[in-house]
Amino acid sequence: MAITSDVLVVGGGLAGITAALSTAREGADVRLVSHKQSTLQQASGLVDALGYVPPTDTGSDPGETPTAGRTGVRDRPDPEGPLADPFGAIDRLPVDHPYRLVGADALREGLELFDETVAGYRGAHTDRNALVPTFGGTVKPTARYPAATAAGLASDDRPMLVVGFRSLTEFDARQVAERLSAAGVPFPVTGAEVAFPAAFRDDAKITRFARALDLDEPVDGTPARRALADAVAPHLDAADGGAARVGFPAFLGDDAAPAVRAELADRLGVNVFEIPTGPPSLPGLRLADRLYEALDAAGVRYETGVPVVGRELADGGGDATGGHVDTLLVDRKGTRVPYAADAVVLATGGLVGKGIDSDRDGVYEPVLGCHVPHPAERYEWYVDDAFGDQPYARFGVRADERLRPLDADGEVQFPNVRVAGATLGGADVAREKSASGVSLATGLVAGREAAAEAAR
Amino acid sequence: MTDPHDDTDDSEESPRRTDPGVPHLGRDEQPAVYGPDYRVEAGAAIDDPVARAADGDADAAGSPVGDSTTGAPVADGGVSDLDPANYDAVDVFDTGDLDLRDGSDSCYKCSTCDTSCPVAEVDDSFPGPKFQGPEQWRLKRKEDHDIDESITSCSNCMRCDSACPSSVPLSQMHNEARGEYVEERMEKLSREYVRNRILSNYRFFAAIASRTPRLANFVTGLGVTQWAGEKLLGITSEREFPDFAEETFREWWRSRGGAQVENPDKRVAYFHGCYSNYNTPEVGKAMVRVYEQFGYEVLVPPQKCSGTPMFANGMLDDARRHAETNVESLVAAIGDGADVIASCTSCSLSLRQEYPELFDLHGIEDVAEHTFEALEYLRIREDLSGALADAEFDGDADAFAYHAPCHARNQGLSRQAIETLHDVDGVTVEDVGDSCSGISGTYGWKAEKYDYSMEIGEEMFEHMADAEGEVGMTECPTCAMQMEHGTGYEIQHPLQVLEATLVE
Question: Is residue A279 within 8 angstroms of chain B, CB to CB?
Fold first, then answer.
């Protein structure tokens, strides 16, 4: 017997979860499998839609020589943005961008699904992007943001203090403040390194701080929240005009985060907010928790810790066009367990998430073997400018408007498969600031499509 | 219909690089060598790593391809050192007993493992899995660097394995480091070593105690025994020793005359482990009755400890000794057409993961590939959900607070009990969350770890209290001890609910 469901979603990130929720809404029976604990904990917890339209030369066939004519560091043209309206700019993206496939309405619906699913987020009141400070000292245009970051928006002109801690080496508060100033934010901002929490080890994990604040554990005899407020209070006047809001690296509690922020705000007499950090990211962990709770509530069955390592096509199907994927093989410590489904959503991530992989011979999609167009010549995969118009950034599976994967001839490769999120090619999500939005929009459509496919 | 044992490569279907496969590197590709017979004398004979690498190449090729003192390729073979196809990375480091170089290189220091570590969240002296694994592994390549004592604070919950997005074999690295620490740095007469040896060899003591279970229960229940355990050995007196059953599982098995079903086509070998045998034979009996209900012939081969507590305490020689017996008798059972079924998720994880990672015994890979957890196997092989839907639950408790053991996670089993028992009419099973119970086998029994163990478990205790059911449920015997200790609930195994539903 195989383990069965109407729809099988492969991948436990934002795209996979969105697809599973979207499938469940259509009334189909859905199962999600994920190789590892969700990589959402590597994410900032910000939900972007489209922040920039970077200049690109993708008019040519991705199998050709895309680096020809691309520019370098010195003459790299500025991107269009930061965008106030993500929806209006979609038409200016390349034609094979996932947003162009599924349309602005899919993005809108994907965001709506997110809003209905995850409590504690802001930004749904407007179509316009918010500008949220990052731990790199930049401001990121983003469509939805955790309530914890709300008091830090760059559109707010109140004076800001950013505090850092010696043990959190990645977060340099003074540098964050200087860069924000250099970016031209409309408020005075100052950074300070404060002497807390002395009682922890030098390389204590953010989960340790969060736990101490959640439980208000005594730190050298003083409750953690009070100890932290006491440490920050002397620096409030360091900001020009006195700080009206204080930004912390995102470690202010996990389960009890709102209470931690409220108590700190109360003790300091100012607004308190978090600045999302790099991985491992507490806002990402909190988001993952909310999303998995939502899967549970929607009746989605899921399992993590096991990779999909193979697939079996319906009788008579080959690798040629027309192959109907019957069964996926899941590796459980060396044993291949068959999972059968009527439709499959592939949301395994892109080059970073290993849903797209490469070696010296080429770029490939390892789970189903979907076609990934790319230049045969390896030196055409990248340009020297690290932050430039990198061809590899857009590598991925190409799909039709129903998100079915396309083979080298542009024909549907697996008719009962839908592809979502970073596994899809055509987007340069790092430069566009569009990763979450692409996952939500394509996850929504892929899930809906897969449910329809299963009902067929 | 697919045979899950079919591991034939379907590579003829498509060219190699579009072949579905596990992402590169990680445990899947690690050779497994550990044990006294397999030690490589570090630095022996060859001092120059470059020369050693060249020698290694020469061996592999069967003929000399270079000057072994310089490593330079010779020209007459037509091999150019500039041709990337003929280039291979030089092995600069002595890689130790296990070659974990690739695994170490796969770590890009995202620290995800550290945030998934239940010990690092409460213990300010513990530097976390990233240090214990890839970082310490690299440090150790320097000859004067010893394993840090903090490795003994790792509870071996192995959550870091399923957290790592880069398939770094963290627990394998921890096991190797812990084994080396215990062997080379731990005083063999120290109280800690003696205590850990006793805790890891639970089976040895349980076997003795089970000969006179009532006396053993009386003695272990005495305050003076617990006091002495703490004072003399450092075993916490906060916990009550588990009761020994008056009839072990194996005694019951013999007295019922062994298997009641004979079926050469459907055979399973039950790896009951120590706890189901000596302490909770009702779990083993449930396994046998449920499997016989589905027409399986159950074999109960000779077996010793799976090694889980030994790995967690760095007693790798003990673990290997037990593995020799287990592998030998399980290979024989597999030869008779059986798959291996464990009711304890730590036992099944050990046979599936730690065995092939750490030991090189004949047939050990076969054992790993043929091992399943009891519920998992039925879900794959039988229409379990159909059978449950047609049956009627006839048990005492009908609402359970379920905790998924950490060791179920790496096998993809952390949600299967919830999902399966959802099909049983009249039974409610609630998941009490994804936190660690905190006991991690022997960890929570150590006096100096007891408080941490309870701090880690706090979240689970709270969620259990919030859950509707007043009976706990889990697959892991020591998680069950912790659940009972923290809440006072009786704890059952999912197999017991299956038994109460399916067996007449």
Answer: yes
